[in-house]
Amino acid sequence: MAAVLACHPVGVLSHRSAAALLELRDWGGTKIDVTVPGRSRRTHDGVKLHCSTTLADKDIDVVNNIPCTTVSRTLLDLAEVITNRQLERAFDQAEILEVLDLNAIQDQLARNPTRPGAKAVRSVLDTHYIGKTPTANDNEEALLAITRELGIPDPECNAFIILDDGGPPIKADAVWRDQKVVIEADSDKWHNTRQRFEQDRVRDQRLIAAGWRIIRTTWKQMTERPHELRPLLLKLLVPASPNALG
After folding, report:
1. Where are the domains of the chain?
2. Dist. CA 27–CA 103, nearest whole Å
3. Is the distance from CB of 183 to CB of 143 less than 8 angstroms?
4. What's the pLDDT at 244?
5. What pLDDT does residue 40 have?
6. CA atoms within 13 A on the CB side of 47
7. How high is the pLDDT of residue 157?
8. Amino acid 240: pLDDT
9. Diameter of the chain measured on Cα atoms
C-alpha cells in the first residue's frame, strides 16, 4: 500500500502485481507494478511505474485495502507484458473465479483501441475458448504446446469425466471427449507415491472399461523426446482421411 501511494495519491497496483492480488496468475515479477494517471516522471526503488491517460475511476477497485486495477483493466494491461498463452491462462482463471465480465472487457477495448494490449486481447476473444484450458502446471502446459504445434483441437484441461459405473467423477489433465481420449501429464511430485500409483491404476481401469483410451506421458518425454509422442497423438486425435487406403 505504501509503495502505491508513494508513487501518486491516486496510484493503483496494476499489471502483474494486480493480477497476483486478484488471483489471476502468479506475480512473476521483480518490481511492483503501479499505474498512475497522467504522465508522471517520478521513479521509485522497487516499483515499475506505468503512466496512463485513460485510467478512469471505473478502472479502479480495492482488494484487501489495496487500490488496484479492475479485472478487465488488469487483463488489458497484462496483454502488454506477458505472452499470448499466459494471457489465455489469465482469462481462463478469471472465468473459473467467476470474475470475468466480457462487457467490461469490450468497454476497455473501446476506450483503449490503440494500446498494444488491445490486439492481444481481441485475439484471445476471437480464437480462445475461455475457461477450456486452465492448465495447472508446467507439465500440462508442455502437453498443450505439443498438441497446438500439431494443429490438434485444444483439449479440456483439468476436466471431470462422469462414468456410468457409479464411481466418483474422474479429473483428467487433458480430455478429448469426441475421441474418448485422456492424456495424463504425470510428474514425480504428484504421482510418485504408492497411494497415488494405486489410485491412478484404478482410474485407468475404470476409463478403459468405459471405452476410453488413456495415454500417460512425462515431462522428460514431452521436453526431450516429443518425437515419440507426436505420431501417437496424431493417430488418436486426428480423423483419418476417408480416402485413406486401408
Report:
1. 2-127, 138-237
2. 26
3. yes
4. 44
5. 64
6. 23
7. 93
8. 55
9. 72
Q: Nearest to residue 91, comparing CAs of 78, 80, 106, 81?
A: 78
β-bridge mates for residue 174, sequence order: 157, 183
pLDDT at 189: 58
Q: DSSP characters for 184-207? A: EEE-HHHH-SHHHHHHHHHHHHHH
d(CA 133, CA 126): 15
Q: How far apart are CA 111 and CA 45, in angstroms?
A: 31
CB 171 within 8 A of CB 160: yes
- Cell output for 28: 512473476
Length of the chain: 246
Query: Which ranges of the chain have pLDDT less than 50?
Result: 1-2, 5-6, 241-242, 244-246
Q: What is the pLDDT of residue 45?
A: 80
Handedness of CA 158, 160, 165, 168 (dihedral sign): positive
Contact partners, residue 14, CB within 8 Å, separation at least 6: 33, 34, 35, 50, 68, 69, 73, 74, 77
Cell numbers standing for residue 176: 478429448
CATH architecture, domain defined by 138-237? 3-Layer(aba) Sandwich (3.40)
